[in-house]
Amino acid sequence: MLKNHIKIAWRNLTSNTLFSSINILGLSLGLAVTVLLYLFITHERSFDTMYSQKDQIYRVILDTKMSGDNEVYTTAPAALAPAIKTDAANVNTVARIYKHSFGEVASIEALNETYLEHNLFWADPSLLTIFDVEFVNGQASTSLIRPNTIIISQKAAATYFGSTDPIGKIIKLDNAKNLEVTGVYKDFPSNSTLDCNMIASFTGSNFDKNPSWGNVSFETFCVLNQGSTQASTEAQIRQILDKNVEKDDQWYSLSLQSLRDIHLYSASYQNSIHAHTGDIKEIRNLSLLAILILAIACVNYMNLITARSQKRAKDVGVNKTLGASKRNLLNRFYIETGVITLISLAVGLLIAILCLPLFNMLTGQNLALDLLFSAEFFVGLTIIWVVTTLISGSYPAFYLSGFSPKSILNPSFKRGKHISMVRKGLVVLQFAASIVLIVSVLVIYKQMNFIKTKKLGYEPEQVLAISTSGIPNDSKVEALMASYNTLTDVKSTAWVQGYPGMTVSGRSLFRDDQDEEGLNIQTNHAEGAIAETLQLKLLAGKMPAKRIEGDTLVEVVINKITLDYLGFTPEEALGKKVNMYLGNNASIVGVIDNFNFASLHEPIKAYAFHNNPSESKSYVLVRYNNSSTADIIAQLKNTFNTVEPTAIFDYTFLTDNVAKLYVKEEKTASVNVLFCGLAIFIACLGLFALAAFTTEQRTKEIGVRKVLGASTASITSMLSKDFVKLILIAIVIAFPLAYWFMNDWLTGFAYRINIGWTTYFIAGISALIIALITISYQSLKAALMDPAKSLRSD
């Protein structure tokens, strides 16, 4: 029986190549998108599943308690880990880790060659047992016990030492510190949150010798004992905090985050030190997109099969007369659908494989073809095939198998109106989904254009940030700046801890001793012509001067948000002392206007420049004239190499750094444009086939109308107007849905566009034009047909 059903399915498939080809192409594209997104989602959900203690590993997260400005940090105080080790009975192992210079690039000298390293971390030895770090050379138990030791990945060993055995070799860090290589470990997998290329020993560092409860810059991982709960461990950590920090000084609270939640549920957290950060919202949106496109493809199948129901009806009637049951017919139609979806799945899988490099480029992923050969993928693929078959075949199977043989074989048999209404409803559903995608693309494009053109309160154009991490002392940096200022094309320079778009130092600002809540504030150690270099607007006073040795005054420049919190006018603020952990003699010497130092996702917050040497300055900012970029970079590089020939000239454009803040949105826009095009194309395939079927049904009517004098234009209009009505209904349904989705997306931006009526107008007109172009070929073909041939057609 199964063999006969498959034979019949194949015969029906080959009897009408146009309808079959459109069905297979539409389903193939829908399934290709589904396969690609399934690979992506599977990869994102696989993060950190390779670690043996994954169910017991937690990260400490910190929640600030500032008035109206709560933030969650992925980092905690350096003093917390030793206290947990001593006082938290629930915790088996604890370890700290932080990125070199809190996120700055490291200068590495090995075998007399100099390199730049972006993934150097410092960590406690216990981190290696928490995350099952596998060594290929050296011992995990002893490699980071001694101070000034470092372990490196296989990738780093190949880069810095080639075929030379790195064990015992010395790496010079930032032209200042010698580290002995004591181990080589296997590279972390691509789906690991940890992405360390080198790990230096935390043991013996200043942060280890004198751990602080105020500097909250260290990720802290704990392994809980079997049977210990997250809630009871958090209670123990609260007791530890109360024991070591006075209640009045507790400007933060501490809690735990499970390792399985770190990758997808940390997108909104501050101070993340890892490059691999996912977003559960992105997973949900892409899942919805995959379902939407597959649904459009399934609707195509239902539409085209039911459109041909009258031709299939007699076949059903004969089978029922000969004794076929409804169940037999259901099986037959489902098998037919299964054959088509199986062919489509094979074609879709091939399309997905061919398009994987493009998909990786659009999403910034590095998905490998290896994922296609896992047992989990084949199980998922089978589920997709079964679900697609059940959804696509459901209505056609139940509808066709439900015909009465007596009514079917009656010469006057006509289909009921309800099937026509169902088909029209499916067309409306398809185009409503497509219009929602069109509106989404337009809104994302307008928001990204708004971001690119909005005035930020500073001018990032024609500013370079040059890393000074490889320059060992301040005098050489000052000599470098002096040399830069002699260049004709250089307008100004400033030596800074960081620049807009970077996370610098987080502090707490208090109005006075009675202020218990305080305000989160970003502080930036800066000297030189910072206002001129960034084109900041100075409202009062001056910028911080270079700190003279022995000077006890800390000069602070605050932005207007900070000024408003303190309750002063710009002139009143000058000379006032500020309490933000910069010493007892920190005074305001200037006030600047607000500027967007972070992304436009966030409103402008408190910010200050200062000249306290508590944080190191890592970049020289250079504003240059509107001259040849290549020439100015060559001049700056030559000057840099003259001042410090052993360091690497590493720079970035501030405009590029601003663009990096919106990489996720750019990817979203690219993916949406691609999938929107695919959704519209699939919907148009179905519309094209339905137009062909409709004109085929009305061939004799068209012939009669032409004989009676109807014009080509009137016939074309007659055939098109029904479809136009459906698109108009789809527009009415789609617009509220599109507004709801995109308004929710825009809430993620503090600075956003308004979705004006022009967006909906463009989307609606686009949908109408696309639909008219799709059906015009069939309408014109029918209208231009010889009426004699039309009247002879069966």
Poorly predicted parts: none
pLDDT averaged over residues: 83
**Rg calculated over all Cα atoms:** 34 Å
Task: Quickly count the helices.
Answer: 25
Helices and strands, with pairings:
Blueprint: H1 2-15, H2 17-45, E1 57-64, E2 72-73, H3 80-87, E3 91-99, E4 106-110, E5 113-117, E6 120-123, H4 127-130, E7 135-137, E8 149-153, H5 154-161, E9 170-173, E10 177-185, E11 198-201, H6 206-209, E12 219-224, H7 230-244, E13 252-258, H8 259-262, H9 280-307, H10 309-321, H11 326-363, H12 375-401, H13 405-408, H14 417-453, E14 463-467, H15 474-485, E15 490-496, E16 505-509, E17 519-528, H16 530-534, E18 538-541, E19 554-559, H17 560-566, H18 570-573, E20 586-592, E21 606-610, E22 619-624, H19 629-643, E23 651-653, H20 654-660, H21 663-697, H22 699-707, H23 712-746, H24 757-783, H25 787-792
Please provide a written account of the structure.
It is built from 25 helices and 23 strands. The chain folds into 4 domains: 185 residues, no CATH class; 206 residues, no CATH class; 154 residues, no CATH class; 195 residues, no CATH class. The chain starts with a helix and ends with a helix. With 794 residues, the chain is α+β, with helices and mostly antiparallel strands. The strands form 2 sheets. Strands 1, 2, 3, 4, 5, 6, 7, 8, 9, 10, 11, 12 and 13 form a 13-stranded mixed beta sheet that branches. The model has no long low-confidence stretch (mean pLDDT 83). Helix 2 packs across helix 11, helix 2 packs antiparallel against helix 12 and helix 21 runs parallel beside helix 24.
